[in-house]
């Protein structure tokens, strides 16, 4: 009986549209849950919020769409079947034959059609469209928000009392968030905690309610908002501030990677600390900082990240310079070549100092092409 109930539950989880409501007025709120099939806290939170919203439809000032991610992987209870659905969005027009034959290829095309359909339907009316991608982690964690560092994403993320991870697209490529940002729409992630922590569902619900209030689709009272904010705040003394990725350890074969037990997100580490074994080799921290998303599962190639803090003052300065005249003179810098409008190649054997900092200051996404070259794209 228990197995039958579980089977029915999984089938219910794999409906592409979890819940939707269409209104004549207001913004469009689009939520993705279960892009990784073993991260079901977002799906459960969406269902619970949908039950509450069902009785509030007459008062809602906007449209809401809650969408399942990797349906096949959700049904199997695994992160993905053939390819990570949250790493292939930059290959949808040029994917390999192997990718095109994968389970995730079909999932991505179906989701892309929904995204394009919503944008096509609502963009002519000049309605604001907000996208959210819900996740959890394999390690114990407080809630946090990862986002591509656009000014609009920053403005939205600032509403939530959780640590905020800037520019994650520079290390993790092909994400759904990057695909949507590149279409010109705000999109932020929400990581609620560990996969199995019941608090992950509660935090996701709190996050979605606060966001719905922020975009005026529902109106909550001050007291209720404060209670929801308290559910999001880290229980420990993790500072609520901006962070950016300082080091990314990639894993070639996750089956041979073994993270040292006990690390949780935002644990402080020092250069030289022992972190993991990879193919029987000891992996120590190359820099000091905060451990982030240590891999405690046997699927995925992101072994761990190391974060460093980023001051609000720097962000304020960068928001001022993003569209300044200085952008017109970047190609005069030594080792810098513009290869298309808004995109530069940087030779690091010539341009050696503060390259990443300068391009970040002016609002560019910086990706390392190889040991001696960076590619910098202007963020939309």
UniProtKB/TrEMBL annotation:
This protein's cofactor list reads: Zn(2+)
| Key word Hydrolase present | yes
Q: Name all Succinylglutamate desuccinylase/Aspartoacylase catalytic domain ranges.
A: 27-195
Under Gene3D superfamilies, the record lists: Zn peptidases (3.40.630.10)
The entry's keywords: Hydrolase, Metal-binding, Zinc
- Per its UniProt record, what Pfam families does this chain match? AstE_AspA_cat
Which terms in the Gene Ontology molecular function aspect does this entry carry? hydrolase activity, acting on ester bonds; metal ion binding
InterPro entries found in the cross-reference section: AspA/AstE_fam, AstE_AspA_cat
Any one cellular-component term (Gene Ontology): cytosol
This chain belongs to the protein called Succinylglutamate desuccinylase/aspartoacylase family protein
Q: Which organism is it from?
A: Gracilimonas sediminicola
Classification of source organism = Bacteria, Pseudomonadati, Balneolota, Balneolia, Balneolales
């Amino acid at each position: 009986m228990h197995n039958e109930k579980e089977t029915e539950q999984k089938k219910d989880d794999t409906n592409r549209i979890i819940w939707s409501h269409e209104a004549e007025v207001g913004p469009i709120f689009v939520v993705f849950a279960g892009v990784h099939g073993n991260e079901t806290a977002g799906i459960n939170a969406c269902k619970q919020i949908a039950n509450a919203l069902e009785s509030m439809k007459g008062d809602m000032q906007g449209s809401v769409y809650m969408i399942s991610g990797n349906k096949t992987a959700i049904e199997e209870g695994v992160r993905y079947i053939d390819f990570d659905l949250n790493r292939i969005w930059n290959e949808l027009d040029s994917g390999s034959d192997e990718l095109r034959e994968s389970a995730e290829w079909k999932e991505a095309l179906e989701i892309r059609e929904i995204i394009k359909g919503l944008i096509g339907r609502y963009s002519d009316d000049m309605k604001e469209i907000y996208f959210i991608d819900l996740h959890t982690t394999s390690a114990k964690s407080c809630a946090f928000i990862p986002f591509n560092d656009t000014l609009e994403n920053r403005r939205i993320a600032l509403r939530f009392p959780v640590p905020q991870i800037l520019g994650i697209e520079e290390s993790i490529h092909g994400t759904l968030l990057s695909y949507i940002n590149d279409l010109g729409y705000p999109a932020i992630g929400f990581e609620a905690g560990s996969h199995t922590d019941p608090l992950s569902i509660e935090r996701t619900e709190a996050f979605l309610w606060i966001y719905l209030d922020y975009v005026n689709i529902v109106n909550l009272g001050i007291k209720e908002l404060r209670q929801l904010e308290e559910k999001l705040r880290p229980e420990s003394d993790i500072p609520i501030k901006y962070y950016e990725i300082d080091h990314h350890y990639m894993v070639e074969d996750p089956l041979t990677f073994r993270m040292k037990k006990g690390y949780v997100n935002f644990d402080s580490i020092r250069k030289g600390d022992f972190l993991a074994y990879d193919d029987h080799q000891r992996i120590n921290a190359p820099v000091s900082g905060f451990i982030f998303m240590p891999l405690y599962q046997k699927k995925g190639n992101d072994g761990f990240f190391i974060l460093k803090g980023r001051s609000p003052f720097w962000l304020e300065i960068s928001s001022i310079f993003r569209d300044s005249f200085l952008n017109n003179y970047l190609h005069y810098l030594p080792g810098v070549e513009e290869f298309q409008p808004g995109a530069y190649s940087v030779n690091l054997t010539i341009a050696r100092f503060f390259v990443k900092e300068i391009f970040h200051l002016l609002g560019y996404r910086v990706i390392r092409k190889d040991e001696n070259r960076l590619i910098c794209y202007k963020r939309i």
